[in-house]
Amino acid sequence: MPRKIQHTQLPKGAKIYLPDEAAQKRRVEAELWNVFRKWGYREIVTSAYEYFDVLAQGTDQELQERMFKMVDRESGRLLALRADVTPQIARIVASRMREEPKPLRLAYVTNVFRYDEPHVGRYREFHQAGVELVGLPNPEGDAELIAMTVESLRALGLERFQLDVGQAEFFRGLLEDLALDEGRSAELRSALGRKDLSALERIVAGLGAPAAAAELLLALPSLYGRADVLDRAERLVKNPRSEAALKNLAEVYRLLTVYGLAESVLLDLGEVSGFDYYSGVHFEAYVSGLGAPLAGGGRYDHMLARFGYDCPATGFAFEVGRILLAMESQGVVATLPGPDFFIIDFTADKTSALALSRRLRDMGATVARDILSRGLDDSLDYARHLRARRVIVIGESGGDASELRVLDLASATGERRLSVADVLADPARYFPETGSRR
């Protein structure tokens, strides 16, 4: 009877991280988490799924359509996998943390699910590390998050990066001043998002807008750069809402200059991505050679009100998969850890090997044992494959089981012969680094 073929392919948009890839991913998450912690952020863990109608309150229609949905067999209600962590945290703050002193500094490292066509560095299940700053309405909160983003990129060893910073209210002021309907507004946003100058000119010509407003709309794609952008925009803007947005952005930029980060920031008043989501300053982080943003964030002062709690908030999230691509493209190579010790035991009863393994682990060291019966050369090759730092050999060639041989694979400084009893009595004497890990 022919053997049944087992299908092993993954669903579209799924990804597996093999051990070395997983170690790189964990390193990235640990570096980001260390930055978050140093800025005073505390971890929050959200559920992978919730009731769809609850999540939908804080999620725009476009993203609702890209959620993975399923039916709760117990209640019959529609469930959804989280497509965005921010609405979950907004709901949690509104329902469980509204009485806590503000501001709240919350951080997370988790997976997110979206029914998208997979693209650079992102699958249908992808991993994010981010923060939410709740209850701080002033520009200093926005500047803090941008400064954290820059610090995070530096902590990861990345270079040649920039942050594009915009202000959603600036464009909203233009739309309000022109009293455009939703269709015309969407056309304008689409042309600006594509940087399609000919389409923008055609749309503006058909609006019949006052000359000053038309001039500003056509200038939006060029309002990109450093401090001079603020001066150019100030000369063109004529409505109070856009003027207030420009003043807010100028203050954020001033604070970033105080942080010493102005050289990492480019202002972009023509950026309208995430338009419905953001209520003020928003930004994206890019590195040279990778077209997709590594991180994005901004102010979303109106989201918590959807859950019955009117409270300002801002946040950002890194895409871990894209960070890994950026590190690879820039040659940022992490030294992946192997076990501190690899024990090769040729004795029959294994007493010494087991005792040593436990003693060294109790001291905080990582220890792997070679349990297969094979020659010493093969075992040493396996230890090198694991990137073991040291090898301990016991009972080699039928020798004395009370002695061991230590080979330092990391530094190739030779070998030592030691007493098993002496090492068990005081491992830190022979391996000083183990004493610092207790």
Structural write-up:
- The chain has 438 residues and is α+β, with helices and mostly antiparallel strands.
- The chain has helices at residues 19-38, 52-56, 61-64, 85-96, 139-155, 168-178, 182-194, 197-207, 211-219, 228-236, 240-259, 320-329, 351-362, 376-385, 420-425, 427-430, 432-435; strands at 42-43, 49-51, 69-71, 78-81, 104-113, 125-134, 161-167, 224-225, 265-268, 281-287, 290-299, 313-319, 341-345, 367-370, 390-394, 403-408, 415-419.
- It has three domains: 9-160 and 288-336, Bira Bifunctional Protein, Domain 2 (BirA Bifunctional Protein, domain 2, 2-Layer Sandwich); 161-271, Bira Bifunctional Protein, Domain 2 (BirA Bifunctional Protein, domain 2); 341-435, Anticodon-binding domain (Rossmann fold).
- The protein has 17 helices and 17 strands.
- The radius of gyration is 28 Å and the shape is elongated.
- The termini are far apart.
- The model has no long low-confidence stretch (mean pLDDT 92).
Fold topology:
Elements: H1 19-38, E1 42-43, E2 49-51, H2 52-56, H3 61-64, E3 69-71, E4 78-81, H4 85-96, E5 104-113, E6 125-134, H5 139-155, E7 161-167, H6 168-178, H7 182-194, H8 197-207, H9 211-219, E8 224-225, H10 228-236, H11 240-259, E9 265-268, E10 281-287, E11 290-299, E12 313-319, H12 320-329, E13 341-345, H13 351-362, E14 367-370, H14 376-385, E15 390-394, E16 403-408, E17 415-419, H15 420-425, H16 427-430, H17 432-435
Parallel strand pairs: 1-5, 7-9, 13-14, 13-15
Antiparallel strand pairs: 2-4, 3-4, 5-6, 6-12, 7-10, 8-9, 10-11, 11-12, 15-16, 16-17
